[in-house]
């Protein structure tokens, strides 16, 4: 399908490949072309996730399972999605058949509808099933998908399909080759497909042309480099495998695809099969708002001795500097446990509040925004942060009109919430909104009534879930989110941070921890008493990207 994707299910190499030793034990029996490099695969997958995250609101991760092989990284094949739910398949590759039941449990846990399941001797891979549009379904008959599976799929989809096309697949290089229907066709728009015609049955090719579908041809050399395997994340907005220049140039000739602002490339040399993602159809019952954002880097800054003289509105007393340093060290170790690289900046005595690095910048995958902190004594902090960020970013924007603290900015996928507070004014919020909208994001300005910063009272935890306290419990701008409700006496714990597989929370809030556990969220607890004395929370202490 080629509609804007709303949700994607993938499996991380950490949970599929597991380790280099695990790969060594499995790759040959699974008929891989060569032994994948575990570390390189993780790097390439991080690029893949970064591209998906820019365009897809929800990214779900299949779990580690002892019942499946490293082939489970190719999450496209065990199921096929329709507008009414998933069809659980049974792979034509016997070693992959256990994946179906692992997938079934995953879908049930996520409350994703299941339309049906193949039974008996039926076998099919998701790579053999292609939606040409919302009412036309093509299914390949080959070594992975048999006639009985085609009969059952046709029966299950009969009420939603106007035309069901059975495509006889070629023998090509034999039964052991991973040849799917999607090996030689990728739909990238309603009337546009990337194809490798030498493998395409004549009748099927004629049918595509008869439907007015333009065919972008992939040359033989680039077919072998997965040039035909193109993932459309929206109409004419695609991710393709790097190195296929002729295919990219052929796409450019269409004047619809791969413009300078839309082309996305990904080197997946280590992922030697043809499918790495399972997409859910746009407009289906399966959509909901949410996301899971993976972080790779974090910037922190040691508090200086002058911290004890910094700004505060609390009456909790003077911070204990030695204890403060212990808590900051524990914070860094917790971040490392979440799998991120930590850039650790030295203290700056001239800026007592500069350990709260979040306020000096707002970071996205593509660009950095240098803020203009609302407290005049903190304005010089942004210069150091900008210099450090130049190691990671080439594109910058700056708030030059009004004031804005990073603590007043909450990102949810491609949408930002910007709080107007004592530190962020209307002018700064409006400029920020204009900047992100010029980059293809959206934004909502929220006027705060109670909290010091926006993120003092709300945190996004992925999967459409927020931890919320006070004014955000019934705030109309956050009405569509599922809420972990934080009572007034525990509202400090609303400032928590989701970092990859963990939610880091302040220690001492048992009810908050229990509510997060009930959502299936694993927590790390940290003492934060000395930061709390100066209005500081967990999010304030780092820039995460």
Strand order of the largest sheet: 2-1-15
Task: List the uncertain runs.
Answer: 255-292
**Basic shape:** elongated
Radius of gyration: 25 Å
Number of beta strands: 30
Provide the structure class. Answer: alpha/beta
Please report the distance between the alpha carbons of the first and last residues.
Answer: 30 Å
- What fraction strand? 15-25%
Overall helicity:
10-25%
**Biggest sheet details:** 3 strands, mixed
- Mean pLDDT across residues: 88
Number of helices: 13
Description:
With 545 residues, the chain is of the alpha/beta class. Strand 27 (497-499) and strand 28 form a beta hairpin. The strands form ten sheets. Strands 2-1-15 form a three-stranded mixed β-sheet, with no helix packed on it. The protein has a three-stranded mixed β-sheet with strand order 3-4-5, with helices on both faces. It has a three-stranded mixed β-sheet with strand order 6-7-8, with helices on one face. It is elongated and about 75 Å long. Residues 255-292 have low confidence and may be disordered. The protein is built from 13 helices and 30 strands.
Describe the structure concisely for a colleague.
With 545 residues, the chain is of the alpha/beta class. 23% of the residues lie in helices and 23% in strands.
Structural topology:
Blueprint: E1 7-10, H1 13-16, H2 20-26, H3 38-55, E2 58-61, E3 79-82, E4 85-88, H4 99-109, E5 114-117, E6 129-133, E7 136-141, H5 147-157, E8 163-168, E9 185-189, E10 192-195, H6 202-210, E11 214-217, H7 220-223, E12 231-234, E13 237-241, H8 245-252, E14 264-266, E15 278-279, E16 297-301, H9 321-337, E17 341-345, E18 361-363, E19 368-370, H10 381-389, E20 396-398, E21 409-412, E22 415-420, H11 426-438, E23 442-447, E24 458-460, E25 465-469, E26 482-486, E27 497-499, E28 502-506, H12 510-518, E29 523-526, H13 529-532, E30 543-544
Parallel strand pairs: 1-2, 4-5, 7-8, 10-11, 13-14, 16-17, 19-20, 22-23, 25-26, 28-29
Antiparallel strand pairs: 1-15, 3-4, 6-7, 9-10, 12-13, 16-30, 18-19, 21-22, 24-25, 27-28
